[in-house]
Amino acid sequence: MATAWDDPRDCVRLAVMAEERGIESIWFGEHSHLPVGEDHAFVRQMPEFYRRIPDPYVVLAAIAARTRVIRLGTGIALPGQGDPLHLAKTVASLDVLCGGRFEWGVGYGWNETELRDHGIDPRYRMSRFGEVLAAVRGLWTHDRFTFGGKHIQFAECWSYPKPVQAPGPPILLGCRATARAFEQLVDHCDGWLPSIEQALDTADVSIAKLRSRFAEAGRDPASLQLTFMDSRGFWLDVDTDTYKTKRRVKRATVERVRDLGADRLIVGMPLFTVDTIEPMLDAVAELIPAAA
Length: 292
Prior knowledge:
α2 links the parallel β1 (about 25-30) and β2 (about 70-75). α2 packs parallel to α3 (about 85-95) and α3 (about 85-95) packs across α5 (about 125-140). About 40% of the residues are buried. The protein has one domain (about 5-285): TIM Barrel. It contains 13 helices and nine strands. The chain starts with 8 loop residues before the first helix and ends with a helix. By secondary structure, it is of the alpha/beta class.
């Protein structure tokens, strides 16, 4: 998981090099903008790159055209801020373009000013989020579909293309292990995308709860997908040596995630430039044997 400093085209170059190194997937986050007037928990330590995040769907579409096997994901996207009619078409089109390699990592959004700028009351971010996902799922899986919710309404319509992956790309919810978030995960998603900093210590208990809830909902507990995310690795703007010695996830953590039965660990890669892409990627690729 990485983000470019200035030029989105560097993200494409990064993906090609990642595929050459046998890295399984590449992920980019989403923020439509960074409000200048900030009042949130991270304001004093917000990295510069948060002002420069490119559109992940556009970047991943460009990567799809230049790669063959590496999976492409959003880490994380904010569908609750979007229009489900546009999102269903955008994500399905991307899944077609990449031949079914897309993973939709999603979350609620934590920046209340950003939410308000989209006309969303932060108090209802979770309920709107659930309706957006339900509407997108319906548009993917029905020839004609209508939706009438509290936050989302649209008349019966056709929406094409449909995704290559049926019933759609895997939807992985990045959330804390709370009752309400897990309820939405079971209702709308295919897997859990927790931060290792927030979730690893109690992951055994949380995963058992999720599998139990899958069973209660009539879903196969074994179908629960697990992707852990190292958000600490990309948070600070550091050089390659500092990353390898102080910020990169430890091999023991990779092994712990593997033993939990996770499908993958997304390794955070800090700010890169054209000159630092290769050594940064080499530092990530060194962890692959620990995951085997």
